[in-house]
Design a protein that fits this description.
Elements lengths: L4 E2 L13 H4 L5 E4 L3 E3 L6 H5 L12 E5 L2 E6 L1 H9 L4 E8 L10
Parallel strand pairs: 1-3, 3-5, 4-6
Antiparallel strand pairs: 2-6, 4-5
């Protein structure tokens, strides 16, 4: 299995990180794909295989840590690309809701 679990919703509370500017304040760090729970079940293959998939977005996936679990909020296509290249880890920005500060605790 690529991910720890495949979810359909965001089970964590609403957070203030809405756009690229807020997420860019978090330094990217490595995360194992098998520790991630996705927050979306469906994926658009055009997004997965598009050459410019990250052109207008943050190049790092967005992960939310809540109650000790890591949720892949945005960037499923990047995670799958990593898995297809036989890489068990990728770099992501992690918003840690467990510590209250919003900084990555990884």
């Amino acid at each position: 299995m690529i991910f720890k679990a495949v979810g359909e919703t965001r089970p964590y509370p609403e957070h203030p990180f809405k756009g690229r500017r807020e997420w860019a304040t978090l330094a990217p760090c490595q995360v194992r794909l098998d520790q991630l729970t996705t927050t979306q079940r469906m994926l658009d293959l055009a997004t997965l295989f598009g050459e410019e998939a990250t052109f207008y977005d943050d190049i790092f996936p967005h992960v939310v840590k809540w109650e000790g679990r890591l949720y892949l909020e945005e960037g499923v296509h990047r995670a799958l690309r990593s898995a297809l290249q036989h890489r068990p880890v990728m770099y992501a920005r992690i918003l840690d809701l467990d510590d209250g500060s919003g900084a990555s605790g990884e």
